Amino acid sequence: MLRYTPSLTRGIGKRLSSSGLCFEFTDEQKELQATAKKFAQDVIIPVAAKYDQTMEYPWDILKKAHALGFVNGTIPQDVGGLGLSSVASSLLVESLAYGCTGITTAILTNELAETPLIIAANDDIKKRFLGRMIEEPLVASYGVTEPGGGSDVAGIKTKCEKKGDEYIINGSKMWITNAGHANWFFVLARSDPNPKTPASKAFTAFAEINMGQRCSDTRGVTFEDVRVPAANVVSGGGKGFLVAMKTFDKTRPMVAAMACGLAHRCLDEAARYSLERKAFGTQIANFQAVNFMIADMAIHLELSKLMTYRSAYEVDLERPGAYYASIAKAFAADTLNKTAADAVQVFGGAGFNTEYPVEKLMRDAKIFQIYEGTLAESSAWSSAASYWLRVKEQGFY
């Protein structure tokens, strides 16, 4: 297992230019990035198509990633984890996503389930649920989204009722990644049945033991009188909703980083093919239409990376992160989908065939405009956070 130095627990290096800005990563962050890129090239890419076709859960890859310290990287050091910074985590995720975002999602979902515990759980819960993730290659699930609920987290209907030393949970969750393989679940449930109670006062969050092993990694989960010890409450007193929102602030930069990694792969595949494919006696890279498409991919990829790293840096500085995180997620997701579509266009008819990777990359891209908040929601939130709050406080933007 790789041992990372303390600089990986912070953001971008402290080396500043005379302007006060620094666009350099630390040597340790660069080493992490290079190691993850090599893992993506040597381990993930050769089998990505197989897992896409068979839809098998990538346990072999996950175990190898766990052995290298690529899984559960943000778990604090006092619980036995690496305590990676958001910037370091984003570099790691971006590099792995270059190989396959489906496999990376199986790895990243642990971070989504673990973050609420890192934010709000007591030491006992952290030790019981986070500690086991370090000891062996396990996966966890984040149970918030519901059928018909989509991005409306405040409107969830799963309920919990306290009876003695237990809570009884009833309801359904949908699109829960790793649900069929999870060792435990983070579950957001409504503890106040009054529909008029504000979301910030109505929810309780739990960590729950796995319901069973299934073959699919994304599925619905139904809770029927599921008994959970009160000792497993991560955030009670109606504060579960706020914990869920803070979780998205911390994980959206990593989702944006995944989008950047996949967009980078699309760009590389398109550029290589444009140099190999010849038409009318010359490489298609020499055609202005193709050249402009590839240049546009590169421009938007670089802008997406800058916004992603900025949003991760804000998390590391422990500033309110919704504004930058939403912008990064929305812009990177949009960039990815256009880049993937253009990559298929560069390939022409070959891009529509499974013999080449770009059709898979395009299929993998769409979800980034949907999960952890739709593109429209992210754009609306970032705009609202910017204009409404700043104009209210300052009188101008």
UniProtKB/TrEMBL annotation:
Residues of the Acyl-CoA dehydrogenase/oxidase N-terminal domain: 26-135
What InterPro entries does its record include?
Acyl-CoA_dehydrogenase, Acyl-CoA_DH_CS, Acyl-CoA_Oxase/DH_mid-dom, Acyl-CoA_Oxase/DH_mid-dom_sf, AcylCo_DH-like_C, AcylCo_DH/oxidase_C, AcylCoA_DH/ox_N, AcylCoA_DH/ox_N_sf
UniProt cofactor(s):
FAD
State the reactions this protein catalyses.
Answer: a medium-chain 2,3-saturated fatty acyl-CoA + oxidized [electron-transfer flavoprotein] + H(+) = a medium-chain (2E)-enoyl-CoA + reduced [electron-transfer flavoprotein]
Query: Which terms does the record give in the GO molecular function aspect?
Result: flavin adenine dinucleotide binding; medium-chain fatty acyl-CoA dehydrogenase activity
Its keywords, alphabetically, are: FAD, Flavoprotein, Oxidoreductase
This protein's GO cellular component annotations are:
mitochondrion
Q: Where is the Acyl-CoA oxidase/dehydrogenase middle domain?
A: 142-206
A GO biological process held by the record? medium-chain fatty acid catabolic process
Q: Does the keyword Oxidoreductase apply?
A: yes
Signal peptide (from-to):
none
Q: Which residues form the Acyl-CoA dehydrogenase/oxidase C-terminal domain?
A: 238-374
Q: Does the keyword Flavoprotein apply?
A: yes
Tell me one Pfam family matched here. Acyl-CoA_dh_M
What family is reported? Answer: Belongs to the acyl-CoA dehydrogenase family.
Q: How does it assemble?
A: Homotetramer.
Its biological purpose: This enzyme is specific for acyl chain lengths of 4 to 16.
- What's the protein called, per UniProt? Medium-chain specific acyl-CoA dehydrogenase, mitochondrial
